[in-house]
Specification:
This protein is mainly α and about 325 residues long. Helices cover about 70% and strands about 0% of the residues.
Length: about 325
Amino acid sequence: MTTITKHPPAAAHKAPQRSNRGRGTVKLRDLKVALLFILPAMIGLVAFSLVPTIRGIYLSFTEYSILGEPKWVGLDNYTAIFKDELFWNAMAVTIQYVAINIVFQTVIALGLALLMHRVAKSTFVRGALLLPFLVANVIVALLWFWMLDYQIGIVNEIISWMGLPRIAFFGSEQWAIPTIAFVNVWRHMGYTALLIFAGLQAIPQHVYEVASLDGASPTRTFWSITMPLLRPVLALVLVVTVIGSFQVFDTVAVTTGGGPVNATRVIQMYIYQKAFGESDFGYASALSVILFLILALVAFVQMKFLKGNESDLD
């Protein structure tokens, strides 16, 4: 009888594993490459945003003319601001402009976005809506300044042809701010509509199909489905447009220069006049810091109450 001796199997060869040291080297190399790519943007951010911001905050506590050295005055500039009637007038004018601009721009942009989503799905139409936004704001302001001119403007010519009295759009205290708001609404509504349109595209189609099967009307669908699911996008749009509206300057500078009788002197125009018209850079810096704090507070409140970081799709 032959005895078969069983030998123990050879040790299985282990698959080679990548060492942690090698992985760390790869990650470090990727980090260096990433930093190299973002370095130009970081240099620009530090040189043109961070450093001027820090210097502006410092100058807000000084009395400074460009011809001399800054003189530390503490909180004197901020104390003077709260007693400055022109500052409060500028804030009132700015808030009036922001209210008109935000309401009309958001409503019109939402309507255009719904039309693009339901009716006009042509890429050409979407591009045409964006064209005014691609034109420089100064050019748009000049265009409407001449079209709305009291004497030779085509709009007033049409009004006169209809037998109605001409309107001093930029020369009237009553009409100046609404007119400036209209010009900026015309320029920005296409861009805002495209942002909202992108939000509409993200809403799942099956949600509308279920609502249709349940017999929901288009109005009920809009208020119960579209608006709640658009909340994050609308929150973003409102934050961006409110911040941009508070910083309106070029349209006012080109058309009215702050007149008539301070009727269009918004806060940015007032800062500019204090800095470059009166060479009071310390006071202008304090005004800028106040505006920055106001915008930060407004953005925080909007995101908090609109719940911009939440979605009903979750």
